[in-house]
Amino acid sequence: MSCAIARPSLEASPSSPVSAAPHQGIARHTPEYLRAQWALFLAGFASFSLIYCVQPLLPAFAQTFGITAAQSSLALSLTTGLLAVAIVLAGAFSQALGRRGLMFTSMALASLLNIAAAVVPSWNALLAARALEGLVLGGVPAVAMAYLAEEIDPRHLARAMGLYLAGTAFGGMTGRVGMGLLTEWVSWQFALGLLGGLCLLSAIGFLALLPPSRNFTPRPGLQLHFHLQAWGGHLRNPQLWSIYAVGFTLTSIFVSMFNYATFRLAGAPYGLSQTQISLLFLAFGFGMVASSTAGRLAERMGRRPLLLAGFALMLAGMLLTLSSALPVVFTGIALVTTGFFVGHAVASSSVGPLAGATKGHAASLYLLFYYLGSSVVGSIAGWFWQHGGWSAVVALTAALALLGLGLAWRGRGFAAAG
């Protein structure tokens, strides 16, 4: 984030958890806090709408290119798979390049690649564009988490993280619902290109709004030993391991459900249109509320009870989707969405307090596991769908929800984070 960010001389050293005289953090009810909120809301909106905009288009891809449901899911799985790897690298590069400039560059390049995906002529070319999109988007999620952990007053971190995640929920909803609605009137190619242009404007707004870093000192050069030492230290921390495992489990359930719910509702006995299916993603509105509410409740109740509640909601929701009645199915999807965003808000805000000075490295590892769940289990669930239908997908995700409950109950990281 190389946008001429002014930094005071007294800043926390990234090589030591003890700082000389750190800025105490951006407090609530200040103009800087409001600017940071809106900037990171735009970052969450742009990045998540770009990542997940193809999800309601998977049946259209299967029809256009003559491919299977599992093959069409690669348009999302390749993006999230390379995103998982890129996030780790971005956490390291942001130590040298700065936070703000890297996030802006990532958002702008990903927007242009989404436009490219809209105009390429073949399935393989579309997959290549989507893969590159995941690679460049790595500069947003981990760096945003690190920025919040460094710059926001610790008393308000959970609340601020929840509001950032509300932006990701809005982006996920807008990308998915917008794609579905637009494809009733225009081609999916035009819809993808239009979203790319909107996200490019969001990137410019983000750059104009985000306050400069005050508790971050750049480390010029790659400094491989420093980064390996930071990652290794976090991977040897059992408290962080429990949080990373929870992130993997959360997104495995969530993405698997939405990937194949679209195919279930498009087929018999429902036969829903693309527009009708896209309305399914209005459930992300519950995620927006859940994220911001979870941040406030975590300050009062603690993280572990909320995480247990999040996984319980996801389990109950997946079981409800076994019903053949559409209202019950939609209720189940809303419960899974609410539980996911509650859990993600709790888990992501638990990383920073345990990370010491290398918060970017810890956040990048959390998101590595988070997106590996999306990519790996999201594709594996395609095998369950093809061989066992929706009941098999529910069995897989219900088992993961039970695993998540166990991790939340036994994980020490959530009690230690406060």
UniProtKB/TrEMBL annotation:
The keyword Disulfide bond does not apply. InterPro entries: MFS, MFS_dom, MFS_trans_sf, Sugar_transporter_CS. The keyword Magnesium does not apply. Keywords: Cell membrane, Membrane, Transmembrane, Transmembrane helix, Transport. It is a multi-pass membrane protein. It comes from the Bacteria. Residues 1-23 are annotated as: Disordered. The chain crosses the membrane at residues 38-62, 74-94, 101-121, 127-149, 161-182, 188-210, 241-263, 275-294, 306-326, 332-351, 363-384, 390-409. Residues 32-416 form the Major facilitator superfamily (MFS) profile domain. GO terms for molecular function: transmembrane transporter activity. GO terms for cellular component: plasma membrane. Residues 8-22 have a biased composition (Low complexity). CDD domains: MFS_NepI_like. It is found in: Cell membrane. PANTHER family: BLL2771 PROTEIN, INNER MEMBRANE TRANSPORT PROTEIN YNFM. Belongs to the major facilitator superfamily. This is MFS transporter. It comes from Comamonas antarctica.
